[in-house]
Amino acid sequence: MMKRLTWFMSGAAAGVVGATVAKKRVKAAAAELSPANLAHKAVDRVREVAQEGKQAIKAKQIEIRARLTGKPGHAATLADELQDGDAVFVDGQPVEAGQVIVLRQRRKA
Q: CB of 76 within 8 A of CB of 70?
């Protein structure tokens, strides 16, 4: 009789603990999928994408300005530096020279 009572109480305790854990997980998932939380996440993601876009635009503008001014220490494509018949290899693979950007920094003496 004591064996049965022990196993019954152990099973009941495991059931209560399991139900409590499941309830907490369901509540957390419901809170995460609430419309307000989803809207906040969407707004945050749009802000991140907009910031990344601004940074990419700024970098491209700097590259274009450097290419147009041709000042030393600014960006230039590798194609500008090559002579006829020169080849460009990246990791042992031939690539088009226009795909490579060379950044130079010159130190002032």
A: yes
Q: Where are the domains of the chain?
A: 1-32, 34-69, 71-109
Digit-coded pLDDT (tens) for 7-55: 999 999 999 999 999 999 999 999 888 999 999 999 999 999 999 999 9
Question: Helices then strands (H, E): number in the chain?
Answer: 2, 4
Find out whether 45 and 35 touch, Cβ atoms under 8 Å: no
Whole-angstrom distance, CA of residue 102 vs CA of residue 74: 9
**Across-strand partners of 76?**
102
Residue 38: is it exposed, middle or buried by C-beta count within 10 angstroms (0-12/13-18/19+)?
exposed
Q: Rounded distance, CA 72 to CA 103, Å?
A: 10
Indicate yes or no: pTM above 0.70: no
Nearest to 42 by CA among 53, 31, 52, 34: 34
